[in-house]
């Protein structure tokens, strides 16, 4: 199969932005989205054959995308057994949340100093969009926006290294919550996001950091050892990409 073909032009779910870039960029982005939205269950086997069929690309492209995801800690590459979505244990989960708290603290401090008015406005719009998604029952997109809020905040902080760390941590956090969330009906509070934005816009570092830490506390407090709630059926997860397939929207996962 020719790996220099044009970027994938598959139809996305309603409300999604069409992906662009190289073919492995597009495959990577779709799998990352599925993990971020908790549509892929921790421990799911990521068959190169099945993914190649779904995305219409070669196994080489699939391997490149999976390698990138493995580098970010959300996919585990097992020699001679293929790739699986990472399934963090309880101790690993505690460590990931500990590191995320540190990163979120640093990002919030920097955002108070560096966030531009247009970035503040974009954050507020994201909270509005998130609230509307949950209100109309689109939990997948709401979960995604909840995570992307933190990434947008990292952009406002102006530190690309922290942004890179946070991107990986958010996807790992999504896996952890899919495994251990105590109430699958809860989601990241948009009211808490609003409060953080207000403090950042006011340049009040102490208040903003305190609010962000309370926000992380509320997420951490919801975790227990409940089982996974996402899907391990690759064709069902990516059904929106397959021609002639009606939209399927499994909304059974928790968010951050």
TrEMBL record:
The keyword Transcription applies. GO terms for molecular function: DNA binding; DNA-binding transcription factor activity. It comes from the Bacteria. InterPro entries: GntR_C, TF_FadR/GntR_C, Tscrpt_reg_HTH_GntR, WH-like_DNA-bd_sf, WH_DNA-bd_sf. Residues 1-21 are annotated as: Disordered. The keyword Transcription regulation applies. Residues 21-88 form the HTH gntR-type domain. Keywords: DNA-binding, Transcription, Transcription regulation. CDD domains: WHTH_GntR. Coiled coil: none annotated. SMART domains: FCD, HTH_GNTR. This is GntR family transcriptional regulator.
